[in-house]
Amino acid sequence: GENVEQHPSTLSVQEGDSAVIKCTYSDSASNYFPWYKQELGKRPQLIIDIRSNVGEKKDQRIAVTLNKTAKHFSLHITETQPEDSAVYFCAASKRVNYGGATNKLIFGTGTLLAVQP
Amino acid sequence: NAGVTQTPKFRVLKTGQSMTLLCAQDMNHEYMYWYRQDPGMGLRLIHYSVGEGTTAKGEVPDGYNVSRLKKQNFLLGLESAAPSQTSVYFCASSYSTGLPAGNEQFFGPGTRLTVL
Known about the structure:
heterodimer, A: mainly beta, 13 strands, B: 11 strands
Protein backbone atom coordinates (compact mmCIF):
# COMPACT_ATOMS: atom_id res chain seq x y z
CA GLY A 1 0.00 0.00 0.00
CA GLU A 2 0.88 3.67 -0.06
CA ASN A 3 3.55 4.88 2.32
CA VAL A 4 4.47 8.50 3.01
CA GLU A 5 7.73 9.44 4.73
CA GLN A 6 8.24 12.92 6.15
CA HIS A 7 11.44 14.67 7.25
CA PRO A 8 12.57 16.20 9.48
CA SER A 9 10.50 15.25 12.53
CA THR A 10 11.47 18.52 14.26
CA LEU A 11 12.69 21.79 12.81
CA SER A 12 13.75 24.93 14.64
CA VAL A 13 14.32 28.19 12.75
CA GLN A 14 14.83 31.83 13.61
CA GLU A 15 12.01 34.24 12.87
CA GLY A 16 12.39 35.50 9.32
CA ASP A 17 14.28 32.44 8.07
CA SER A 18 12.85 29.90 5.64
CA ALA A 19 11.68 26.40 6.54
CA VAL A 20 11.52 23.37 4.25
CA ILE A 21 9.76 20.09 5.00
CA LYS A 22 10.13 17.13 2.64
CA CYS A 23 7.96 14.10 1.94
CA THR A 24 8.33 11.06 -0.26
CA TYR A 25 5.58 8.70 -1.37
CA SER A 26 5.65 5.16 -2.66
CA ASP A 27 2.63 4.79 -4.94
CA SER A 28 3.24 6.30 -8.37
CA ALA A 29 -0.56 6.47 -8.92
CA SER A 30 -0.92 9.09 -6.17
CA ASN A 31 -2.26 12.31 -7.62
CA TYR A 32 -3.22 14.62 -4.75
CA PHE A 33 -0.83 16.01 -2.14
CA PRO A 34 -2.21 18.24 0.64
CA TRP A 35 -0.38 19.85 3.55
CA TYR A 36 -2.13 20.30 6.89
CA LYS A 37 -1.14 22.50 9.83
CA GLN A 38 -2.08 21.47 13.36
CA GLU A 39 -1.62 23.85 16.25
CA LEU A 40 -1.32 22.40 19.74
CA GLY A 41 -4.63 20.94 20.87
CA LYS A 42 -6.40 21.96 17.67
CA ARG A 43 -7.70 20.20 14.58
CA PRO A 44 -5.63 19.80 11.39
CA GLN A 45 -6.36 22.47 8.79
CA LEU A 46 -5.43 22.50 5.12
CA ILE A 47 -2.88 25.16 4.22
CA ILE A 48 -2.05 24.24 0.64
CA ASP A 49 -2.45 21.35 -1.77
CA ILE A 50 -1.13 20.34 -5.16
CA ARG A 51 -2.32 17.95 -7.82
CA SER A 52 -0.08 15.78 -9.97
CA ASN A 53 -0.59 17.85 -13.12
CA VAL A 54 1.17 20.83 -11.46
CA GLY A 55 4.83 21.14 -10.43
CA GLU A 56 4.60 24.10 -8.05
CA LYS A 57 1.96 26.13 -6.25
CA LYS A 58 2.33 29.27 -4.15
CA ASP A 59 0.10 31.06 -1.67
CA GLN A 60 1.72 34.13 -0.13
CA ARG A 61 4.55 32.86 2.12
CA ILE A 62 3.97 29.16 1.52
CA ALA A 63 4.72 27.08 -1.54
CA VAL A 64 4.67 23.42 -2.43
CA THR A 65 6.77 21.71 -5.10
CA LEU A 66 6.16 18.27 -6.58
CA ASN A 67 8.62 16.00 -8.39
CA LYS A 68 6.61 13.09 -9.78
CA THR A 69 9.65 11.32 -11.21
CA ALA A 70 11.38 11.20 -7.84
CA LYS A 71 8.07 10.81 -5.99
CA HIS A 72 8.69 13.58 -3.53
CA PHE A 73 7.08 16.88 -2.61
CA SER A 74 8.11 19.69 -0.32
CA LEU A 75 6.60 22.53 1.70
CA HIS A 76 8.44 25.84 1.74
CA ILE A 77 7.64 28.59 4.23
CA THR A 78 9.43 31.90 3.76
CA GLU A 79 9.82 34.76 6.25
CA THR A 80 8.71 32.52 9.11
CA GLN A 81 6.78 34.06 12.00
CA PRO A 82 6.13 32.76 15.53
CA GLU A 83 2.54 31.96 14.56
CA ASP A 84 3.88 29.46 12.02
CA SER A 85 4.93 27.26 14.96
CA ALA A 86 2.85 24.07 14.72
CA VAL A 87 2.97 20.47 13.52
CA TYR A 88 2.81 20.13 9.74
CA PHE A 89 1.58 16.97 8.02
CA CYS A 90 1.98 16.00 4.41
CA ALA A 91 -0.37 13.47 2.81
CA ALA A 92 -0.88 11.64 -0.45
CA SER A 93 -3.85 9.99 -2.05
CA LYS A 94 -5.09 8.46 -5.25
CA ARG A 95 -8.59 8.13 -6.52
CA VAL A 96 -10.16 4.81 -5.56
CA ASN A 97 -13.56 3.51 -6.49
CA TYR A 98 -16.10 2.22 -4.04
CA GLY A 99 -19.56 2.57 -5.42
CA GLY A 100 -18.83 6.23 -5.99
CA ALA A 101 -15.22 7.34 -5.62
CA THR A 102 -13.19 8.89 -2.87
CA ASN A 103 -9.65 9.62 -1.86
CA LYS A 104 -8.04 7.98 1.11
CA LEU A 105 -5.34 10.20 2.53
CA ILE A 106 -2.14 8.57 3.78
CA PHE A 107 -0.40 10.98 6.15
CA GLY A 108 3.25 11.45 6.97
CA THR A 109 4.29 11.34 10.62
CA GLY A 110 4.47 15.11 11.01
CA THR A 111 7.09 17.84 11.49
CA LEU A 112 7.12 19.99 14.61
CA LEU A 113 8.18 23.46 13.47
CA ALA A 114 9.36 25.90 16.11
CA VAL A 115 9.97 29.49 15.07
CA GLN A 116 12.20 31.28 17.58
CA PRO A 117 11.51 35.01 18.01
CA ASN B 1 -22.58 26.94 10.06
CA ALA B 2 -20.89 24.73 12.67
CA GLY B 3 -18.80 22.73 10.17
CA VAL B 4 -17.72 19.36 11.60
CA THR B 5 -18.55 18.66 15.24
CA GLN B 6 -17.68 15.70 17.45
CA THR B 7 -19.10 14.42 20.72
CA PRO B 8 -17.86 13.78 23.30
CA LYS B 9 -14.68 15.88 23.62
CA PHE B 10 -13.13 13.63 26.27
CA ARG B 11 -13.88 10.16 27.56
CA VAL B 12 -12.27 7.66 29.91
CA LEU B 13 -13.21 3.99 29.55
CA LYS B 14 -12.26 0.82 31.33
CA THR B 15 -11.00 -2.13 29.33
CA GLY B 16 -13.92 -4.03 27.84
CA GLN B 17 -16.40 -1.16 27.93
CA SER B 18 -18.13 0.03 24.79
CA MET B 19 -18.85 3.50 23.48
CA THR B 20 -19.91 5.42 20.39
CA LEU B 21 -18.31 8.58 19.04
CA LEU B 22 -20.58 10.86 17.06
CA CYS B 23 -19.51 13.05 14.14
CA ALA B 24 -21.88 15.53 12.53
CA GLN B 25 -21.38 17.88 9.58
CA ASP B 26 -23.67 20.57 8.21
CA MET B 27 -21.86 21.16 4.91
CA ASN B 28 -23.80 18.54 2.93
CA HIS B 29 -20.58 16.59 2.29
CA GLU B 30 -20.82 13.17 0.69
CA TYR B 31 -17.63 11.75 2.16
CA MET B 32 -16.82 11.25 5.81
CA TYR B 33 -13.79 9.75 7.54
CA TRP B 34 -12.60 8.62 10.95
CA TYR B 35 -8.90 8.92 11.85
CA ARG B 36 -6.89 8.22 14.96
CA GLN B 37 -3.86 10.27 15.91
CA ASP B 38 -1.08 8.82 18.03
CA PRO B 39 2.24 10.48 18.95
CA GLY B 40 4.85 10.05 16.24
CA MET B 41 2.45 8.25 13.90
CA GLY B 42 0.48 10.99 12.24
CA LEU B 43 -3.15 10.44 11.33
CA ARG B 44 -4.30 6.97 10.33
CA LEU B 45 -7.58 6.24 8.59
CA ILE B 46 -9.89 3.85 10.49
CA HIS B 47 -13.02 3.76 8.31
CA TYR B 48 -14.63 6.00 5.75
CA SER B 49 -17.95 6.48 3.97
CA VAL B 50 -18.76 7.68 0.47
CA GLY B 51 -22.42 8.23 1.17
CA GLU B 52 -25.42 7.44 3.31
CA GLY B 53 -25.61 3.72 4.03
CA THR B 54 -22.09 2.89 2.77
CA THR B 55 -18.88 2.34 4.73
CA ALA B 56 -15.43 0.94 3.99
CA LYS B 57 -12.28 -0.03 5.88
CA GLY B 58 -9.23 2.19 6.11
CA GLU B 59 -5.70 1.43 7.29
CA VAL B 60 -6.48 0.41 10.90
CA PRO B 61 -10.10 -0.85 11.10
CA ASP B 62 -9.70 -3.68 13.63
CA GLY B 63 -11.67 -3.18 16.86
CA TYR B 64 -13.91 -0.47 15.39
CA ASN B 65 -17.27 -0.39 13.63
CA VAL B 66 -19.01 2.48 11.89
CA SER B 67 -22.43 3.43 10.61
CA ARG B 68 -23.70 6.16 8.29
CA LEU B 69 -27.49 6.07 8.63
CA LYS B 70 -27.88 9.75 7.82
CA LYS B 71 -25.80 11.80 5.40
CA GLN B 72 -24.80 14.31 8.06
CA ASN B 73 -23.75 11.80 10.74
CA PHE B 74 -20.94 9.24 10.95
CA LEU B 75 -20.70 7.09 14.07
CA LEU B 76 -17.60 5.25 15.31
CA GLY B 77 -18.14 2.39 17.73
CA LEU B 78 -15.80 0.54 20.04
CA GLU B 79 -17.46 -2.69 21.14
CA SER B 80 -14.83 -3.79 23.67
CA ALA B 81 -12.30 -1.06 24.36
CA ALA B 82 -8.62 -1.93 24.80
CA PRO B 83 -5.72 0.22 26.12
CA SER B 84 -4.26 0.19 22.58
CA GLN B 85 -7.26 2.28 21.52
CA THR B 86 -6.18 5.17 23.70
CA SER B 87 -5.82 7.97 21.17
CA VAL B 88 -7.22 11.20 19.81
CA TYR B 89 -9.95 10.52 17.26
CA PHE B 90 -10.69 12.95 14.45
CA CYS B 91 -13.63 12.93 12.12
CA ALA B 92 -13.40 14.64 8.72
CA SER B 93 -15.64 15.27 5.75
CA SER B 94 -15.22 16.37 2.14
CA TYR B 95 -17.16 17.10 -1.01
CA SER B 96 -17.60 14.68 -3.85
CA THR B 97 -16.23 16.66 -6.76
CA GLY B 98 -16.13 13.99 -9.42
CA LEU B 99 -12.59 15.15 -10.17
CA PRO B 100 -9.85 12.57 -10.72
CA ALA B 101 -7.94 13.89 -7.72
CA GLY B 102 -8.83 14.65 -4.13
CA ASN B 103 -9.95 17.79 -2.37
CA GLU B 104 -9.88 19.36 1.07
CA GLN B 105 -10.96 17.35 4.08
CA PHE B 106 -12.48 19.40 6.91
CA PHE B 107 -11.69 18.07 10.37
CA GLY B 108 -13.67 18.09 13.58
CA PRO B 109 -12.15 19.23 16.90
CA GLY B 110 -11.25 15.72 18.02
CA THR B 111 -12.17 13.34 20.86
CA ARG B 112 -9.52 12.39 23.40
CA LEU B 113 -10.15 8.80 24.53
CA THR B 114 -8.31 7.05 27.33
CA VAL B 115 -8.79 3.34 27.96
CA LEU B 116 -7.59 2.14 31.35
